[in-house]
Amino acid sequence: MKQAWAITRQDFRSNPYALLWTVLFIMYLGFTMSFVVSMELGERGALNPAADFVMLVLTPFLGFIYNRRTFKYLQEDSYTHMLAFLRTLPIPVSAVIMSRIQQAIFAFIGNGVVFFIFLFALSGTLRAYAGPGFFISFALTWIGYGMLIQAIYMYLEFLKRGKAYFWLSLIIMLICGMISIMVRIYAANLVSITAFYSKEWQLLSPVMWGALAAGVFGIFVSYRMTLRKLIKRDLA
């Protein structure tokens, strides 16, 4: 953990503007998402299925710190180059992976606060539920989901090259779209469902605790699988 924290601290120091760009980007996402969530269809006021798709796709992105490496992974295969450099240092592979998990946790905390404040402040649909218990429960429910998908992204970062990472990310988004369509076919809406449970149960919401448990388990599984395979990966 100490070595992982040293890597994390150095990464923040070497990218002084990353936090600023990250906050601005997340503010933009929250601003945009608030309008999507507020779009209602039909006389019964059902939420637009686009809200499900955008939440499924965007929430995992709250686990990223947006620096040059993040935006250049396709053109320069920046993640692979970073791993190749770190391998030359006397640092265990486990510390490198743990550092990435630390950054994801910090990102979910900071980005989550910014994103959901903008979402709740600007979305009349969610403001109707009101109450801090609802806000916290709703946010943690989706962050738990985001952690689960972020675990997949971390696995891909460490074990795939830039182009493969890009195409696999598109497949994840395609799956999110298919899930949104399937939920719509059954006349349901994931945002509405999570909002209902958050309103009814607040911090005791089984959906919230289930999502958080799934997210933590996903990160743990990703760590174990990545550690086992990264040791053998050829970075040349």
UniProtKB/TrEMBL annotation:
Domain of life: Bacteria
UniProt keyword Transmembrane present: yes
Keyword terms: Membrane, Transmembrane, Transmembrane helix
Spans through the membrane: 18-37, 49-66, 104-122, 134-153, 165-187, 207-223
Keyword Transmembrane: yes
Protein name as it appears in the record: ABC transporter permease
